[in-house]
Amino acid sequence: MRIAITREVSPAMQDCELSYLPRTEIDMTLAHAQHRAYEQALAALGCRVQSLPALPGCADSVFVEDTAVVLDEVAMITRPGAESRRAETAAMAEVLKPYRELRYIEDPGTLDGGDVLHIGDTLYVGLSARSSAAGIEQLRAALVPFGYRVETVTLQGCLHLKTAATLVAPELLLLNPAWVDGLQFQGVETLSVDTQEPHGANAVLLDGGVIYPASCPRTRERLERRGIRVTAVDMSETEKAEGGVTCCSLVFKT
Questions:
Q1: Annotated catalytic sites, by residue?
Q2: 3-state helix vs strand vs coil in the chain, percent to 5
Q3: Is it true that the peptide bond before 11 is cis, omega within 30 degrees of 0?
Q4: The pTM is what?
């Protein structure tokens, strides 16, 4: 059984952190409706959805992926790169306690879960404005007892590694080559997004297919030509807050 932890949209989301997009008004009614549809897509693809209440004082808290990295043996509670987001992690630690042993990224390191891409026994971690070399080294040291390798990945022009690359099949990586060089992923086949859809490399891979943004139809066609079952969801309002489909859930096996 897979569980998907989600959190309701914060009423403060208009004040979200932005790094690469201009601030535009978020339709909060639509954001709530889209989030419910996203949760329904997770459930339809076999997840038991655990929906958490909104955190009114945390504008970006719908993006639960950044607060933890959950592996089979352990959950790493992160220290987000944006100071405004650090209040989110204590609440997530309480949620994860029943499922996993917890370990923590400590000051001065920073790490966002959106920078961590798990492929086999390797965690590729984006060295970004949100995840520091010190945070990546702490993750590497914490995971040595469990047999994981941690590889640092360089990127440019985007917020997180998973903005630029995610798995869409067990051995197929969808990526934007303008933001990340696919040669950094050893022995992994890559598929490029359509050049008109730079944000199209973000997908949630589940047993029954992928959850994918409706805003990227050209890249969706590429996926479907590869035989990948795509469940498209409209995420227009969280996209205004620089969020993708992976950002809004923490998915792991119970």
A1: 160, 247
A2: 30, 30, 45
A3: no
A4: 0.97
